Amino acid sequence: MIETLGELVVSLLIVAGSGFTLVGSIGLVKLPDLMTRLHAPTKATTAGVGGVLLASMIHVVVRSGEVSAHELLIALFLFLTAPISAHFLAKAYLHLHRERERNFPPACHGRDWTLLDEPGEELPREDRPQPPPRV
Amino acid sequence: MIGYALAFGFAAISVALLLNLWRLATGPTVMDRLLAADTIVTNLIALIILYGIHQATSTYFEAALLFAMFGVISTIAYCRFMLRGDVLE
After folding, report:
1. Which value does ipTM take for this structure?
2. Where, by residue number, does the polypeptide cross the bilayer (chain B) (predicted)?
3. Which structural domain range is residue A54 located in?
4. Are residues B83 and A92, on separate chains, in Cβ contact within 8 Å?
């Protein structure tokens, strides 16, 4: 009974995880430009791989009765590093195609975004962003 | 029951890999291709883990971990190269 239940959970997690992965790749192909395309693999694919890793962990428990935390390491690593690589991809895209993306929200303190700002000129001292006052 | 789920999983991830390959081949900008390569690495991790479930062994865990680490490192290194013209300054 408990083994059947475990197999059911593992099967559901495998189907859900690979379905999410497929949805992420469909989004990668269908969406119109890179800033929207970034959403699909970074969220759907990471969730899908997380589901497959969870299925693997539960499968080990069902199969041998031992608890294995190996897959947790991969899941933690992926969930921690997916936002970092997505951030770097977006930053490099903005850097390479700055003429395409001129409809940014405005940056504060009268300056452009750090990535697009021309270096060299410094603001006068009173216009610079001030650190918050100490309590 | 796990057999059917595994068959579905292998099929879905293979189709996902083909779609990623399409984006890798036709992506209009360099960053599209890099995003597709990063997604291919992530999907390969899922495929390796599914094969581990299929074979009922944990031998392939290290391969998946290595793929995860090197995939992220290479993506970030390439992005830094596009940003700064150099990887380590």
Report:
1. 0.90
2. 6-22, 34-54, 60-83
3. 2-101
4. yes
Distance in angstroms (rounded) separating the CA atoms of residues B75 and B82: 11
Contact assessment for residue A53 and residue A10, using Cβ atoms and an 8 Å cutoff: no
Q: Which residues of A touch B50 (CB under 8 A)?
A: 14, 18, 52
- For residue A68, what are its two tokens? 């294995």
Q: Does A24 touch chain B (CB under 8 A)?
A: yes
* CA gap A61, A98 in Å, rounded: 51
Mean pLDDT of A27-47: 90
In a domain, B68, yes or no: yes
Q: What is the pLDDT of residues B33-78, one digit of tens each?
A: 999 999 999 999 999 999 999 998 888 888 999 999 999 999 999 9
Using CA atoms, how far residue B52 sits from A57, A97, A115, B15, B16, in Å, is 11, 42, 43, 19, 19
Q: For A68, name the nearest residue in chain B, comparing CA atoms only.
A: B58
Please report whether residue B89 resides in a domain: no
Question: Rounded distance, CA B40 to CA A89, Å?
Answer: 15
Determine the structural domain holding residue B68 and report its residue range. 2-84
